[in-house]
Each structure stands twice: as C-alpha cells, then as structure tokens.
Design a protein that fits this description.
The protein is α/β, with parallel strands linked by helices. It has 3 domains: 4-97, no CATH class; 102-238, no CATH class; 245-430, Dna Topoisomerase Vi A Subunit, Chain: A, domain 2 (3-Layer(aba) Sandwich). Helices cover 52% and strands 14% of the residues. It is built from 20 helices and 15 strands. It has helices at residues 4-13, 18-31, 45-55, 68-75, 85-93, 100-121, 131-142, 147-156, 158-177, 185-193, 204-217, 225-234, 261-269, 299-307, 325-336, 349-362, 373-379, 387-390, 399-411, 421-430, and strands at 37-40, 64-67, 183-184, 237-238, 245-249, 251-255, 258-259, 273-276, 283-288, 292-296, 315-318, 340-344, 366-368, 380-384, 413-415. The protein has a 6-stranded mixed sheet, with helices on both faces. A 3-stranded antiparallel sheet has the order 7-6-9. Strand 12, helix 16 and strand 13 form a beta-alpha-beta unit. The protein is elongated, with a radius of gyration of 35 Å.
Length: 437
C-alpha cells in the first residue's frame, strides 16, 4: 500500500525539508523523473540532520549535496514505503506536477485552440475571407502584428482576450467594408464595443487595433501620437470632431433658428469656407444653388473651380480624398433638401471606390461626373496601379464605374482630376446636368 500522502504530510510538517523539496520539484519539472543533483548552500543544522537521516549521510559543513535518486531511495527505506516521488511532490505542493516541456506543450495547445476559435469566427469563405481572418492567421504564424499584446492578455485572462480579439477583428472588417468612408473614433468604438473610449490610443484595444490596421495597410506601427492619428485617419477613423472637415463654396447652412449667420456671410461674400464635424452639430439643413452641388476629391481642383466661378451661382464641395464624417453629414443635408449631387473623383481604385460608395448611399440623388471611360483616357497619368489595388475594382456595383473599371484594369494607370480641369470648369460654369449611365 502506498503512503504518498502520509509521506508528503510528514515532510511538510518539518520545515527542514522545505528548501530541498522546492529544489526537487524543479528537477522533476526539468527531467520528468528522479534525476539530477541538488545543492543547498548554507544549510542549517536542522536541514543537515533531517536530510542526512533519510539518505544515510552526515554533512559536517554548511553545504548539502545529494542526488534526487539518493533521496528517493532513502524514502523507500522508511515506514512510508513504497512511495512514488511524483505523487509525493504533488501532495506536498497540492498542485498537479508537470514537466517544463509538458507545460510548454499545454500552453501551445491552449494558444492554438484560442486562435482556432478566433479564425473560425472570421473564417468567411474562399477568397472572400475578411481582413480580420488574414490578420489573425499571420499574427499566429509570424508572432507579429500585435501578437505579444494579445498573448499577454490571454495569459492574464483568456476569456477577456478572446472578446478583445473579436472586437478588434470586427473593427478591422468594418473598416475594410466601409473603406473610403470616415467615422469619428468615439462613434466607431461605441458601435463595435459599446464603449466610446474602447479604441483610444492608450487602451489595450486601441494598441491592438493599430497593429491590425498596420498589418492591413502594410505600414509600420506609429511611434508617436501624431503618427497614430495619421494611421487612424488613413483608414477613415477621426479621433475628434475638429479633425473631420469638408471645404464648401456657395452652400447655405440652416440652424434651428434660421440661416447660420457665419456661413451665410461666407455665402454672400462668395468665399469658400471650412466646416468641421463639430460645426455641423448645430446645422439642421443645407441648400445648394439651383439644387445642384458639384463635389470634387482634390483640394487643388476645388480651389481652381471656386476661383473661376466666384461670380456664378454655383455650389462646390471638396471631400479631400476619403469620405470624412463632416462631408457625409453635409451631403446628407443636401440630399434631404432635394439637391442633385455631381461627384467627380480620381479614376483609380480608391477614387472609384469612393464614388461607388456615395452612389450606393445616395442613389438617384448622385450622378457621376466625368468618371466615364473617355474621361479616364483623358485623365490618365504615367503612374502604375498595382495588381492588389486593381483587385478592388471587382467590388464596384455601379454599372458606369464597372465599365470604366474594365479600361482601368487594361491600362493599369491612374487617372487624376487635375488632368480634367478645363472640362470640369466648363461643366460647373455651364450648369448642365451630367450624364449617368
């Protein structure tokens, strides 16, 4: 009959065995058996006497050196025999005993199961796997892209880490689906997690999202607050209402108590103005001259059109590339007022994607402006478009843009608004309705 529990109890009652038992546990974890030797420096008289009594040796000086096997054989000669050293150690420390390799294997299995659950959550199908799936897969295989942040959280609290990864993955997929549009950071965070501060820069979720975005966009992780802000804005996330802005000319704004006096002054003086998302909080409506507004992507094009149309009753907006929250809010007001939106962007994958998203949002209220196949031929530059960027053209829904996209895919060169300045101005001054295919 084994008396492992009684043996462990006896050893535990005697403090003279405490240091030795700790060292023996380390040896078992290293070798998985009774192997190796143990040295106790500055051993007390009680330690020398207690250990010597089991192994059958005397230790005159302050150092005790024995092999694990010697101690195990000594126990087999006591009244507790036969004993199993692994069980004795487990009873002594009241925890299951694993070797270092077994612990590593268990940790590895747990991490693989963890990532397996996450990948299954974002699996998708075939080539349509979302950005989150690729991010998590590469994170796991290459131990990069926020791996250390996530694993630290997983080690501390596995369930919380899984929720964190799911939220960041959902955020990345949302950015991929709405690429080209803009959202305020607080609003975006609240939509994903219910907490408007969830993705703030100093939070774990904010740090992990930054790594995910940098993986998606193949850029370096920013090392400064300014770099972080640029990183977020590059995917349409605006940290505050002030940074989200749109340039306007010839647009009248309404507040709850009537025409907004500040912007009414800009309108009457025929001067362009900048409108932030914060400014728009008090705006209840917007009106364009002749219920027609011309929207361009590029600031230089906007200034050229405004400079040459100051004496005309025309309305022009500039989105400055991606669809910022301020631009969307102002366009919403204009669409609600019954205005027709003529949108012209660069004829490259990014510009055409923005146009397509606007068309999907505003439907018949939006007409494509100088974005046909012939316009592309005239706007072509010498700048090549990568195959990866060209692949985005397959997501387009608008028939006219799809027709233009066929030519873009063939030529593989970007088309820019600056090359159409004369015709854009002619359209604005003429005030004629643009075609829509």
């Amino acid at each position: 009959m084994c008396n492992n529990k009684e043996c462990a109890g006896y050893l535990k009652k005697n403090e003279a065995y405490a240091r030795l038992m700790s060292e023996l546990r380390k040896k078992w974890k290293s070798f998985g058996r009774t192997a190796g030797s143990v040295t106790l420096k500055n051993a007390t008289e009680a330690e020398r006497r207690a250990i010597g009594g089991i192994v059958g040796k005397s230790f005159a000086d302050g150092t005790v050196t024995i092999t694990f096997q010697e101690f195990e054989q000594g126990l087999q000669k006591t009244r507790f025999a036969p004993v199993d050293m692994k069980t004795v150690l487990e009873e002594y420390f009241a925890i299951p005993l694993q070797t270092n390799q077994e612990q590593k294997d268990q940790v590895q299995r747990e991490r693989e199961e963890f990532f397996g659950r996450l990948l299954a959550c974002f699996e998708g199908c075939g080539e349509n796997r979302p950005a989150a799936f690729h991010w998590l897969r590469e994170m796991q295989s290459r131990k990069k892209y926020g791996y250390q942040i996530l694993i630290k959280e997983f080690t501390r609290e596995p369930r919380a880490a899984e929720i964190l990864a799911r939220n960041v993955g959902s955020a990345l997929n949302c950015l991929e689906e709405t690429e080209g549009e803009e959202s305020l950071l607080a609003v975006f965070a609240a939509n994903i997690s219910g907490n408007p501060h969830y993705f703030d820069r100093g939070t774990v979720a904010g740090q992990l999202l930054t790594h995910a975005v940098c993986f998606w966009k193949n850029t370096d992780v920013p090392q400064s607050a300014y770099g972080w802000r640029e990183c977020m804005q590059s995917v349409g996330i605006v940290p505050d209402n002030i940074a989200s802005m749109v340039h306007a000319f010839g647009v009248r704004l309404e507040a709850a108590d009537g025409p907004h006096p500040a912007y009414e002054a800009f309108y009457r003086r025929r001067e362009p103005y900048v409108l932030t998302a914060e400014n728009l909080r008090s705006i209840t409506g917007a009106k364009a001259d002749h219920n027609m507004v011309y929207v361009v992507e590029n600031e230089m094009v906007f200034l050229y059109l405004v400079e040459n149309a100051k004496d005309r009753d025309v309305s022009v907006l500039c989105t400055s590339g991606q669809l910022r929250a301020a631009a969307i809010r102002l366009l919403d007001h204009l669409a609600e007022s019954g205005a027709t939106i003529h949108y012209s962007g660069d004829l490259d994958p990014a510009g055409m994607d923005i146009a397509d998203r606007l068309w999907q949002r505003y439907g018949d209220r939006l007409q494509l402006w100088r974005m046909g196949a012939e316009d592309y031929r005239e706007s072509m530059s010498g700048e090549a478009i990568s195959d990866g960027q060209l692949a985005k053209l397959r997501r387009l829904k608008n028939a006219a843009l799809c027709q233009t996209a066929e030519l873009v895919q063939k030529e593989k060169l970007a088309g820019y608004q600056e090359n159409l300045l004369g015709k854009l101005l002619e359209d604005v001054l003429g005030g004629r309705r643009m075609y829509e295919r």
